[in-house]
Design brief:
By secondary structure, the chain is an alpha+beta fold. The mean pLDDT is 84. Helices cover 57% and strands 18% of the residues. It has one domain: K homology (KH) domain (GMP Synthetase, Chain A, domain 3, 2-Layer Sandwich), CATH 3.30.300. The N and C termini lie far apart (62 Å). Helix 1 crosses helix 3.
Length: 122
């Protein structure tokens, strides 16, 4: 089994566990607004970067939810260790995935351009 194949399998397993257990076991008041979008493991499987998006009405609310998740890092690592048979439970870092927001903004700009073009043609 190649190292990269194993890394991908562990990334998928960590993503699945966090996605499932974050909602059912981690006590966060606004957890329903958090979606785990990806995991990027180091080649030695000792570090994992966890990407997630947050549905929030303001930047302040997004920051509060982000910091709530970060504060639960120990609990999330414990769950990963309990659910997966890994030699080491990876050290976690969290990053916001703003891909959906950027895509929505691009779609909004394209609609605006399209609308302006239609207005000028009339």
């Amino acid at each position: 089994m190649s190292g990269s194949h194993r890394v991908r399998r562990v990334e998928e397993a960590v993503l699945r566990v966090i996605g499932e257990k974050l909602i059912t076991e981690v006590a966060l008041p606004q957890i329903a607004r958090v979606t785990v979008t990806g995991v990027d493991m180091s080649p030695d499987l000792k570090n994992a970067k966890v990407f997630f998006s947050i549905l929030a009405t303001s930047e302040k609310e997004k920051d509060q939810i982000f910091h709530s998740v970060v504060r639960k890092k120990k609990e999330i690592r414990y769950i990963i260790g309990r659910e997966l048979d890994l030699r080491f439970v990876p050290e976690l870092t969290f990053e916001l995935d703003e891909t959906a927001e950027r895509a929505a903004r691009i779609a909004e700009l394209l609609d605006q351009i399209h609308q302006e073009k239609s207005d000028h043609e009339v």
